[in-house]
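User: I want to check something. If I give you two sequences, will you return the structure for each one separately, not as a complex?

Assistant: Yes, each is folded on its own. Here is the first sequence with its structure:
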Amino acid sequence: MSRGAYLMSLGLVPYAEALALQRSLAGAVSQGAIPETVIFLEHPPVVTVGRRTETELELHIPEDAEVEIAETDRGGKSTFHAPGQLVCYPILDLGNHGKDVKRYVRDLEEALLRTLAAFEISGERIDGLTGVWLTRSAVPGVSLASGGGRDSADARPVRHSTVQRRERSAEPGSARREPHAARGGGPPRKIASIGVHVSRWVTTHGYALNVDLDPAPFTEWITACGLEDAAFTTMARELGRPLTTDDVRPSAIDAIADVFGLELEELPADEGSGLWPQPIHASLASR
């Protein structure tokens, strides 16, 4: 049986504003004031630092790179967000979903696998690691050299910010290990990352799916997810053609609704959506 929930599709949102929104929604969900809520958005360029990140070892960002650095309360290590990456933040009460954090992470992986399958991309899990990976050609007949995706990144001054809170965090199965060799040679290619935070059984953070962005910062600017030998890829690169987050979002919404048994009602992204005013509403209204 499906459970009613809210859906918010917000476009491009600064990381700190999105985190403030998640925390407000999580507080309301934990009190039963609003239904569970799923947020889809994109972020301007930002490196987020999880609570297990060894900053001195994992961050090697060029001084002239235009990217924010944000410390956050999710589990896991460092990762990179930028336009062209579809980010999903489910604010769910795990009391409705088994009260099992490991199962929750696996369900997020399942939603990602279904989203990729809608584009005939064969994603995979790798034992001992979170997220979704590719270990072979995603689409028969498509070469990774065939292009179709972004392959360059802007480089301007780094901006630092601190966004952190001490509560129970989790990224189950994230113990560091060497990635498996891909079938046919080469390392596995990570196409989606997961990092979650759970407080009083209510979730924040979620997943980031690489749709069409330059993957170079994952390996050149940071040791993403603490994995030195992993490669990173995008849906556009695997398909050999351009793709937008708008193209992917409907399939992602359907997948998250199906996996978690949600009947999603979309809320307007501006003020007056039935929620209380948030800092994000002012910025959205000014666009």
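And separately, the second sequence with its own structure:
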Amino acid sequence: MSMSGKMGLRSRFRYRALLKIFLPAALGIASLAISSRTASAQGSASAQAASQGAAQSGKSGTASSASGVKNKAANSEAAVQGSPNSPFTRREEDLPKGDAPRMGNGHPDFSGYWIPSKTDKPVGNIGKDLPGYKLPFTEAGRQALKYNLEHTVDPESLCIVGGIPRHDASGLPFQLLEGTDHIVFLYWYTTYRLIPTDGRKHTDDPDPSFFGEEVGNWDGDALVIDSISFKDERTWADENANPHSDQLHTIERWTRPDLGHIHVELTVIDPKFYIEAIHYQRTWLLGNPEQQVKEYSCAEENVDAPHLQPGPGPIGPDGQRGYEKLAPLPPPPDKDHPAKTSIPD
């Protein structure tokens, strides 16, 4: 979830500033200690739930840059407290009350801009609901995790689609648009998934993809999305580099218990890498009516891709990625030292 990888930043300063301001607001966790010369994101696990490239964050390089970060930090703190103008956080007490709306066909209408609930921790970890956050790996699964930690750069930081189950565990909001026979998820990565809800079955031999072949069916007021045929290379199951194989099968059960909430119960089945099914659930809060996902250009000027290292970086005892100390970035690119935009293998 690296800002360097996902937003295609136009300058090194924008990368650093947004990494420390935008993502803490997005995930609802901000711990910004800023001096006149340095804006450091000490203790911001959510900002580092981004990418290995975040380990290189540090000094702004100019006093004016630090001043600008200071001003944005104040806005970030307000957002973390649940500012009604923040597209990334929402307070329970600000939610509208009432029953879930319904479509003309009688099904619940899931349409809306959905913001993660702050009560769902750790962010980005499909083992969130397991004791000690420990996943039930097979031996092949343990070896796949070891390989990801030592050899695989976070795929999302290289502009590779995160897919499912990773997007279900993401700390960023998303938008849902429901029609009579399809529903679409719109993500902050300028990524989407379009799911038929007309009762069709899986095809006989679907091509592998990052979101898998997805079919939706209604079980009363619950939308059940069954997905198979996933890619198994250059993909992580969550932010912590946990793996999945080509045998991955996910079942999502989406419900809207009232106007202000949406909920998923996710089952992850992967007999090659896990000895038993993984169960994960979480809730999102309804955003303001005018809020929507924005363009999220990843590949444009992805200047930090060549510097990224394998693995997710440190994972704390709270089950979440994060860095306590951040190394300084090199100076911003200029006409004599242009940005390098090559993507490593």
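Because they were folded independently, the notes below concern the second chain alone. Residues 94-286 form one domain. The two ends are 18 Å apart (CA to CA).
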